[in-house]
Amino acid sequence: MGDYIHTYSSQEQERLFRQGKFLENIVYRSFDLTPYQHIAELGCGNGGNTALLLEKSPSAKITAIDIDPSQIEDARKQITDDRVQFKIDDICQLSEADNQFDCAFICWVLEHLHDPQKAVAETHRILKPGGQLLITEVFNDSFYLYPEKSPGIMAYYAHLNNVQRSFNGFPNVGARLGNLLNNVGFKSIELIAKPVIFDNRTIELRNDMIDYYIELILSAKEELMSRNLVDKSLLDQMQEETNRFKEDPDAVFYYTPIQAIATK
Ligand SMILES: C[S@@+](CC[C@H](N)C(=O)[O-])C[C@H]1O[C@@H](n2cnc3c(N)ncnc32)[C@H](O)[C@@H]1O
Questions:
Q1: Which atom of ligand 1 lies nearest, measured to the CA of 45?
Q2: What is the pTM of this model?
Q3: Neighbours of 162 (CB within 10 A)
């Protein structure tokens, strides 16, 4: 198995594409995509966000880049709009020339990189002066469930984050965004840390969110099982805890992703 913890299976590709739409109101609530003419979407996966960028940036061309050929192959099947060009490339060593784009969009990518600083430096290089980076990243230590009665989910989650660290990834990379951007000369860096809180005001959304999040973390289950960190009884326990959470009128889902808007 490689070091992309979610894997590139077709089941995971289907989940990843759905994720774009599911998280739309969270990822885009602080971004205005309308001014841009040429967007570099870096680590585009199989196009879940590319589809949304097309809708939200009606006049922009999009160059959508991912390192994995199977993601790009699937993205090309999902999206045929000729405003998009898909490319296989490494965000840490882009073949794009300097000063090409007026926007770069990065979503849930830096956590997977050995050297996120290099990716941010490359992004700075390919932006035009005045161009903007819009970025959304994880801060996994912010995950919290009330009532605090989900030890199986929390044990699995700790293993997941530790395995990602052992892959030289960064499950809390969102907290580093200010430094990563400042270090390479981005200006006007705005950090956005708006929590996602679902509780009994919107029970259906809260329950959709826990189902989404459990499905997301389970995408790493084969990796964790192959290391004997997780077994079937823990997976069954997580299912029971998820069901109990959804039936509890007082349950709360909490997570804070970190976003940034910065200018070259
Ligand atoms: C969690 S997915 C997110 C995909 C997409 N941004 C989205 O939100 O649907 C992370 C993606 O980053 C890609 N990736 C990992 N390392 C990369 C690198 N060095 N250069 C470009 N893409 C990379 C993976 O192949 C994967 O498709």
A1: 27
A2: 0.96
A3: 14
